[in-house]
Amino acid sequence: MPTFLHTADWQIGKPYARVTDPDKRSRLRQVRLEAIERISARAAGASFLVVAGDLFDSPTPARSDLSAVCAAIGKMKLPVLVIPGNHDHGAPGSVWHSEAFRAERERRAPNLQLLLERKPVELAEAVVLPCPLLRRIDSADPCAWLHQLAWSELPAGKARIVLAHGAVQDFRPGDLDPLASAQAGSQADAQAGAGNRLRLDADWLSEVDYVALGDWHGLQQVGPSIWYSGTPEPDRFPRSDDYRAGQVLQVSVERGTPPSVTPLETGRIGWHPLRFHCRKEDDLPRLEQQIDALVGERVGSDLLLLELEGSLSLLGQERLQELLERLRAQLLRLKLRGGCDLMPAPSELAALTERPGDPLVARVALRLQEQLILSDRHRDRDADGDGMSDGLSEATVLRQALVELHRLVREAA
């Protein structure tokens, strides 16, 4: 029974534009390149490897990324079959038609087989049926050519593997990508309405043994022999307990029998969601414990989506800010959602507003508190469109100003 690796959506060159620190963006980009070596390490016993689209994040990647990818693929001791996806589509002018790609492949990766034509490719162990995307959005079904295929002319004893990139017809985006479906106007919704729809029809499905899909970044089994491998290095926060990314699929298949599919871990960077409700300062050590359980002592290896709610006193807010600053230094990205409302203790409020000898501090404190109440009612939504932000909202700035004022008064006492 021949064994191969199924992977997709490497998206080498992904910019990570919402990560503000350039060194951390560079780290995330480098990890995606390093994932190729981890894929290679999982290839023991495999006869070949298929990449179901989006090897690059752009149809015109940087020459340095092109060179690095070809060098990494060239070190693999097996054929690597690649189709274009929507990010690195195969239209004229894309990387696949460039002299730079031809030169790099010839020099560094002679084992890389680019499949731009929709026709059978016979290997020693199997027949690959590629369905490449030849433009970013294709209104036609990339798998349509399989309807006219002369199946009887294919080698009778070799497994048949369809290689395609796109969304499955009549399959809700949320069933395949929990994160994408959570946002109106998401990539999944746009693609579902615009094109790149794969019609996995029964008339040709019965003729094939495995369908290797790309486009959705989470691991997903669509049918008995139909799988999305997900991206080998995670690139988003999961929004469901069963969302998995950061793996390749080891597939053993032979003609006329169900495939055996085994996920093999390849991811290195942790993407952690955490929701926490604050009620008092004593809750903050518990928050730290939960964060430590996720990221431990690792530095520069994790991203955290922290969803906060509840309320804290001025002293509690000060301690929370100290924790957040430490996390911003430790993590590749701290993405905040919501926040803890400011509920000063009576003694804290009195220390700021009941100051006959210092009326300026009293006026500033009252004004900040008034503005904060208004801002909390209309809490800013960030550019993500999902209420999450790496930066400081108006409410956050006002809260920090009041906390800082309290700290200065306390230290001056």
Q: Would you mind describing this structure in some detail?
A:
With 413 residues, the protein is α/β, with parallel strands linked by helices. The protein folds into two domains: 263 residues, Purple Acid Phosphatase, chain A, domain 2 (4-Layer Sandwich); 143 residues, no CATH class. It has twelve helices and 19 strands. A six-stranded mixed β-sheet has the order 4-3-2-1-13-14. A six-stranded mixed β-sheet has the order 5-6-7-10-12-11, with no helix packed on it. About 8% of the residues have low confidence.
Write a brief caption for the model:
The protein is an alpha/beta fold and 413 residues long. It has 12 helices and 19 strands. α9 crosses α12 (394-412).
Keywords, separated by commas or semicolons:
33% helix, 19 strands, six-stranded mixed β-sheet, 413 residues, single chain, Purple Acid Phosphatase, chain A, domain 2, alpha/beta, elongated
Q: Layout of helices and strands, plus pairs?
A:
Elements: E1 3-7, H1 22-41, E2 48-52, H2 63-74, E3 80-83, H3 99-108, E4 112-114, E5 121-122, E6 126-131, E7 159-165, E8 167-168, H4 173-176, H5 178-181, H6 187-194, E9 197-198, H7 202-205, E10 210-214, E11 220-223, E12 226-228, E13 247-252, E14 260-265, E15 270-278, H8 283-295, E16 302-312, H9 314-330, E17 333-338, E18 341-342, H10 346-353, H11 359-377, E19 388-389, H12 394-412
Parallel strand pairs: 1-2, 2-3, 3-4, 6-7, 7-10, 8-9, 10-12, 15-16, 16-17, 16-18
Antiparallel strand pairs: 1-13, 5-6, 11-12, 13-14, 17-19
Taken as a percent bin, the fraction of beta residues is 15-25%
| Major β-sheet annotation | 6 strands, mixed
CATH homology group of the largest domain: Metallo-dependent phosphatases
Q: Order the strands across the largest sheet as they lie in space.
A: 4-3-2-1-13-14
CATH topology-level fold name of the largest domain: Purple Acid Phosphatase, chain A, domain 2
